Amino acid sequence: IRESQPISSQREDLFSSTSKLEDLVESEVQIVDVLDTFADYTLEKAKLIKSYVEAQKTLINTQGKKLVAHPVEAYLLIRRLTADWEDVHGALHAISNYSVGVFNWVETYRQNRNFPQSEDLTGAAHAIVRLQDTYRLNMKSLSEGIIQLPKQMMLHNTVFHGKNGLTAQDLLFIGKHAFTQGLYNRAIQWLQTAEGIAGKEINGTNGSQNELLEELHTSLRSAIEVHDDILERQGPRGITWKTNPVPINPELARDAKYQINRKEMFVPALFRRQSQEEEFVHFERLCAGEEIRPDKILSTLKCRLTTVISPYFVLSPLRVEEASLSPHIVIIHDFVTASQADRLIELGKPKLRASMHQTVNGTFIKSYIRTSKTAWLKDHEDPLVTKITKKIEQAVGLKASLPKEAEDYQIANYGLGGLYVPHTDHLMNNPNPEVYTAWERFVGDRIATMMIYLSNVEAGGATVFPRAGVTLWPKKGAAAFWWNLDRSGVGDENTRHGACPVLYGDKWVSNKWIRLNEQFLSATCGLHPLEKFQIP
Ligand SMILES: O=C(O)CCC(=O)C(=O)O
Ligand SMILES: [Fe+2]
Fold first, then answer.
1. Whose CA is nearest to atom 10 of ligand 1?
2. Which ipTM value was assigned to this complex?
3. pLDDT, tens digit, for every residue of 80-126?
4. What residue's CA is closest to ligand 1, atom 7?
5. From residue 183, how far is each of 190, 194, 237, 250, 275 by CA, in Å?
6. What is the widest separation between alpha-carbon atoms in the chain?
7. The Fe2OG dioxygenase domain covers which part of the protein (predicted)?
8. How many whole angstroms from 450 Cα to the centroid of ligand 2?
9. Distance (Å, rounded) from C-alpha 509 to C-alpha 455?
């Protein structure tokens, strides 16, 4: 997967970065304020019109047909339609002027502030479907705004309460999105939850509610049919779909072949090539906090203080936690301070753009493989950035200051359910060097990744390595470091990794990708072609 700075200025979506969503809250307050004043004002004017209407009604009603014959009545009629009318005229005029003004203001405001559009609503629905599925959240609770974490993910806070719940209409909308995403089992669950709620929402005979119930029944019936059909023809799981292991229809479920299916057990397939489907299962399990490595491996991992790389750390050794020995993945705790992390966010924030990916034919598109926004920072943009680069160099013994030695810092902010599907950071896998630019051939592949977590994430958002069976939980100020290439410069496919969807909170990371060629003095080749680096 190739990433780059965006080249076209498309409209920025909102759901892929929490930073952009925050701005939206402020904008909503502004609009509500203006509308509130407008509504109060028009109500005031409408009251005036209403009192005119009421007064005239009584006058008209008390009169017989011959009213204009009476000179006083004639006078009153004319007064009503002249002097009295002035007030109504003024009120109507004021309302219409004001409403045109407010209308124009709101429209311009919405455009300037990049208000959400239907693609954002779709994105948000997708995110909810994905979160519920990945973290196996209780759907009923979720629809009431309560997020209950799976047992193995519980750290400090285990339940998150929102202030509001979803309506049956919302659940129907989300269910339909689950269906189009191929999550047939989940679509059915969403629709069933919607039915439950719609039943309760009904008080009295409400026409539109009946319509909704009807639509839910129809959708549910066809979702079940499709579910069972897909399961029958394609099996319970593929890259683009998921069903239950057994059909929903009890008659079909009695088939003997589904009785075997039911007992299907997960056996981790570590340190080897995984099919896309297998990788996805590993990804999800690791995201939800499952430990899938055997004790034999886990018992070899240590936490240690180290000064070995550089005397720079004699007074304050690096606090290294080994996450995996092969591939060598470590967490360096407190690599930057909380205020340094905040500063990096502050520097990146104004420059955030939707993550882009290069397609096979070379054009850049907005990424659905990675739902986040990214910004690039150069060393000279702030003294702190240079300082952190120096620290990285000392910590891992690689050169990272010059453009030929390492890339600029990439600051990333994930949005609602934001994730990054498994990939390798090294990207020069093509044996034909012609496909790479002269610059890329000159600097070489990404030998190592130094990723600093700039925020804590209340729930979800881990970095997981499906083949190595590793889960790294974000911790503000900690840095994850791993080698993408082995000592002979060949890509280590066991470093495939991805970012789990953010379930609750705000995730910010900073990536520093270090390039191979300039490290020829600091990271020398091994004796064996598959020898790996073990630093720090
Ligand atoms: O955000 C993460 O946890 C991983 C990010 C990542 O893998 C990348 O940016 O290449
Ligand atoms: Fe990565």
1. 425
2. 0.99
3. 888 888 889 999 999 999 999 999 999 999 888 888 888 889 989 99
4. 498
5. 11, 16, 9, 20, 19
6. 119
7. 405-516
8. 10
9. 7
